[in-house]
Amino acid sequence: MASKSNGVEGSEWARAPPPTGSFGDRIAKIFYDPSDGSILGRTPKRWGIAVVFYSVFYAVLALLFSLCMGGLFLTLDNNKPSFILDSSLIGANPGVAFRPLPADGVLVKITDDASSDRYIKELQEFLSPYKNESWFTSKRSCSAEDNYGFPDAPCFFIKLNRIYGWKPDFYELNSLPSDMDSSLVEYITALPANELEQIWISCWEEKLNETKIEYPWGMGLPGRFYPFLNQAGYNSPLIPVKVTPSVRNETAVIRCRAWAKNIEYNKSLKEPSGYTRIQLQLGQYEKLAADI
């Protein structure tokens, strides 16, 4: 009597050996085996079972994922971030930015009509949301009426980046910082008491080339615009800085700083903050007279 191993007669094959045949036949039977009608090693019935199983499995998985994500979104506020100020990734120190932005990301270069017109167009688009603001429409300098000072004395608009819930801690007149620009101190001390709640802006040239820097609208961002709470129709306050280089074809580097007690300036070399840099170069630009 033949011995058994795991319930299988030891003298018989538990499974028939693979049929012999040419190499090409064996490769072909991987894709389709006419003996049992299998495709890629599975009969149509087994393919049907596998398709039904994985369809149900992934449908249930997708349903569970949708329920989890739906529950998450139901807990979110559409107008307020979940993490704000010190608990947020960007922190509570607002960044400072300017417009128009350089065409190459670094240098604002004005050499001809095309380069000047590009920046004028960018400012028109950037400032278009402010057309309904009474404080903005009352300004005449650094406006569309004078081409924002381009090309000879371009105006750059300074603003703070929006941080939800951030409110400036204003300087008092008797506690102005010792490193504040003397021109800004003089400007602040000349203001009435009801106009001191502002975020101050001052600019200077990093490498002195006698570049002229003017503030046609003043040197402060009014505190009434803060905090930013994602209100409909909110426009960030801004002020223009008018820059007139004394030397053509040389790069003037202007640094503009925002001043408030809770704006930290230049934390470290790895984390600069509280200011923005404008690099400007004016070429030997000559506006062609229009044909008469």
TrEMBL record:
Residues that span the membrane, as ranges: 51-74
Keyword tags: Membrane, Signal-anchor, Transmembrane, Transmembrane helix
Gene Ontology BP annotations: intracellular potassium ion homeostasis; intracellular sodium ion homeostasis; potassium ion import across plasma membrane; sodium ion export across plasma membrane
GO cellular component, one term: sodium:potassium-exchanging ATPase complex
Entry's localization field: Membrane
InterPro entries recorded: Na/K_ATPase_sub_beta, Na/K_ATPase_sub_beta_sf
GO MF annotations, alphabetized: ATPase activator activity
Region feature Disordered, mapped onto this chain: 1-20
Membrane topology: Single-pass type II membrane protein
One protein family per Pfam: Na_K-ATPase
PANTHER family in UniProt: SODIUM/POTASSIUM-DEPENDENT ATPASE BETA SUBUNIT (PTHR11523), SODIUM_POTASSIUM-TRANSPORTING ATPASE SUBUNIT BETA-2 (PTHR11523:SF46)
Family stated for the protein in its record: Belongs to the X(+)/potassium ATPases subunit beta family.
Stated name of the protein: Sodium/potassium-transporting ATPase subunit beta-1-like
Source species of the chain: Papilio xuthus
